[in-house]
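Slide 14.
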Amino acid sequence: MLYFNKIAVGAFPLECTLVALQMAFAAVSLLVGGWQSLHVGSAKDLLRWCMVVPFFTGMLLSSILALKHASMSLVITLRALSPLGSLLVERFYPDPLEVSTGVVLSIIVMGLGGTMYCSQLDHSHLQGVFWVILNAIIAVCDRLLQRLMLSKDQNPVDLSKTTCTLINNGCGLIPVAIAAYCMGEFSEVPHVVAQLTLWHKVVIALTCVIGLGISYCGIWAQSLISATSFLVMTNANKFVIIGIEAFGLHTKVLSRTQTIGASVTLIGACLYAQARKKIEAKAKEKQPILPVQNEAKKVQM
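Slide 15: predicted structure.
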């Protein structure tokens, strides 16, 4: 998705209109193909979930702007710092995220990798850095809210995943479309569309389809894992793009320090996965103890 968005915003430089198109496609597709799975438990749950909409919308829009003004490798590497913020907040959740020394050290390693990469940036990337950092902050807020309202162990809302996805895209479409109108983008659409090649049209269509899939699957995944784990997973699975951009597309030349920094960040993500696996393994070892003791008491009675 990151790769296609990078191409799309280059060929269709109307950021708000592009995001509005993606959100409109998702909303219409869900209404047409997923109306049977729509479920709203109460008006209170609906209003609570609406708190997510500004952050979801801001995350999409700032992501497009970040890709427009910065390289994909910069976007990915700086996002490596985002799990640290979510880790601190999730410690105060109703069901706090368990943290080990390995978890903290792995995130620090990711941060060091990002620092190494950014140390070699040209001054022309400063504007891009602003959008990337803004996107990371909004993404952390979005994931933390979604985790709080989706996880059964936290403070969940009684809404189906289809409903949550529809609200995010349908309600988020309104402010994005207004922003596009105020910026005069709608008047430029015919001229920009006329210059699009067939390949660019295919890419824009793919961003709509893939965006819908990511939006729905993201909510599904967020209901199962912590916000910190989600951010680490998202960062790690995109690191292949650094290699594609530098060694496949040849659109970015990485210095030795930047290559090492990107690699260190990826290693940190792998270390985090191992640290979380150990925590989950210990938790599973403790679970069977109480049920076995209770069954033994019943037999004795």
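Speaker note: The radius of gyration is 21 Å.
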